[in-house]
Amino acid sequence: MYIDSHCHINFPELAARLPEIFGKMADNHVSHALCVSVDLPDFPQVLDLAEKYPHIYASVGVHPDYEETPEPTVEDLVRLSNHPKIVAIGETGLDYYRLEGDLEWQRERFRTHIRASRATGKPLIIHTRSASEDTIRIMREERAGTDDGGAGGVMHCFTESLEVAEAAIAMGFYISFSGIVTFKSARELQAVARAVPLERMLIETDSPYLAPVPHRGKMNEPGFVRHVAEFLAVLKDLPQERVAQQTTDNFFNLFNILR
Questions:
Q1: Cα 243 from Cα 234, distance rounded (Å)
Q2: What count of Cα atoms within 13 Å lies in the side-chain half-sphere of residue 59?
């Protein structure tokens, strides 16, 4: 059994194909998926999917790439997360890759999400790109880690260094690998994946983006997360069944979901 710990099946290109997508999940033994929020105007779609389908969970948050969107408050996030199928706060974090100029608004938004996570006890889904130093610094300053009374969380679609991974793990966070790890060009990331303990690892698609080999270049979907797990099993020289079971256990443990 596999779990896609991060997808966007509410996006139009996937929402129009839900019966097919769910069928492929079943065919590939993908039992559950977490549909991740990127802004508040579209959050009702995310929640609706989680309410309709027992095997779909959801988060609430505003992505750091979304500049022209309603800014969440701690109170907004706490209120909207008060639902049994909302299991996380995010995705949130920092992304300096696409945007330029004064990005203090990103850092303040990130702090808001961490404070909502602490208030609710629900873990964070963190996105970081070209901003790892500030990301780790703010996580520490806002006491996001489990040792500081935070709920911890996951560094999703991880592409940073082993040093960054170890800093996050030290704060009680998990490291999630997407289809990127299967790319031939991802040698440095593969070395990180070898070093990250399986007990701190999740798998994801981030669909509809970043389809893993052998589907690279196609639209991604939750059923393809199996290929990420299979690749990691070979990379780490572990039985495929162990990777499947441990990443599944990690998902339920992190997001406090009863089975």
A1: 10
A2: 31
What are the pLDDT digits (tens) for 151-167?
999 999 999 999 999 99
Domain 2-254: which CATH number of 3.90.550.10, 3.40.366.10, 3.20.20.140, 3.30.360.10: 3.20.20.140
Among 98, 56, 81, CA closest to 222? 56
- Average of per-residue pLDDT across 186-213: 98
pLDDT > 90? residue 6: yes
Distance CA 71, CA 175 (A): 27
Which are the contacts of 254, defined by CB distance < 8 A and separation ≥ 6?
A: 123, 152, 153, 154, 174, 202
* pLDDT tens digits for range 70-118: 999 999 999 999 999 999 999 999 999 988 789 999 999 999 999 999 9
Rounded to an integer, the average pLDDT of 4-20 is: 98
SS3 134: helix
C-alpha span between 121 and 171 (Å, rounded): 15
* Sheet of strand 56-60: strand arrangement: 2-7, 30-35, 56-60, 86-95, 124-129, 153-155, 173-177, 201-203
Contact 181, 189 (CB under 8 A): yes
Burial of 239 (0-12, 13-18, 19+ CB in 10 A): exposed
Rounded distance, CA 234 to CA 231, Å?
A: 5
Q: Which residues contact 194 (CB under 8 A, 6 or more apart)?
A: 235, 236
Residue 67 to residues 52, 95, 107, 117, 170, Cα–Cα distance (Å): 30, 11, 12, 21, 31
Residue boundaries of the structural domains of the chain: 2-254
